[in-house]
Amino acid sequence: MTISAPAGSRDLPHPACEEIRLEGVLHALSDPMRLRIVRELAAAGGGELSCSQFELPVTKSTTTHHFRVLRESGVIRQIYRGTAKMNCLRGDDLDGLFPGLLDALLAAADRQSRLA
Hints:
The chain has five helices and five strands. By secondary structure, the chain is of the alpha+beta class. Strands 3-5-4 form a three-stranded antiparallel sheet.
């Protein structure tokens, strides 16, 4: 069950840590654009990046979809700061649930990008 945002608020719904499922995380990270977003967030060292800081070769609506999939699967947390939607990895939650998974996937993506 996803934690719902209060009616009329700008808070976005996120799954509670215990609701994050491995198959949802793997599905979210199976898309190249979503993996690219996660790699950029990981490179930010735990910091927050606004949606506008990502230069993806897709439409704005497709970008919004990718962020929603990542948020709903529990991979990222999104919060509003003023008018900007900020994004950060839920690395601690993911490492607690699936130790080493995120690091292994990011390392594999880095290796793959160097070979391409």
